[in-house]
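Project channel, design review

CF: Before we commit to the Roseovarius ramblicola constructs, I'd like one complete example in the thread so the newer folks can see what an input/output pair looks like. Taking TRAP transporter small permease protein.
RD: sounds good, go ahead.
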Amino acid sequence: MHRAMKRYIRAIDRMNRWLGRMTMYLVFVLMGVLLWSSFSKSFLAPAAWTLETAQFVMVAYYVLGGPYSIQLGSNVRMDLFYGDWSPRTKAWVDAVTIFFLLYYLVILFLGAVSSTAYSLGYFGSDPFVFFGDLFATFLTDGLSGAREKIGFLERSPTAWRPQIWPIKVVLCVGVLLMILQCIAEFFRDLERLSGGEPDAA
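CF: and here is what came back for TRAP transporter small permease protein:
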């Protein structure tokens, strides 16, 4: 069991470390969009796409960087108490409180999946069945068959009117990766409590 837990920790840490480091470069994309927005407003006709693009990039930066932030331990803690505790006490507290974070993330993930299904034109009450059917159709009938399953695509109510589903998919992926990283952190705490030290990825 310990070996399987260590393998899981290494695999999730490696994946989220790589994604987190790639996500950091979205700051430069965001800067470029905002610079163009300022330039176009000053010297050209204002671009309709810059504000929402900046918002979408910021959402991707925040959500996809979340798992790496959890891995680094840079999420918010009450260091007034936490900083003076022993590593074993920290592991105990983390192993218990991680369930509160997991509960929140699971609820967030369910809402994100439901919202993503809505943005693809599904108005029913079981989005997982919709996505399972969509995936099965894609495997059997290809992209054209999957397109027939998709209904009215939700768009932003702004002048630019972009489709909303891509950023909602990013939200689903980011929250799912945060859930997987939280499980890795729980396993890491169990390793520390059992007297071992989990391997670094």
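RD: helpful, thanks. Residues 2-75+84-193 form one domain.
CF: The chain has a mean pLDDT of 89.
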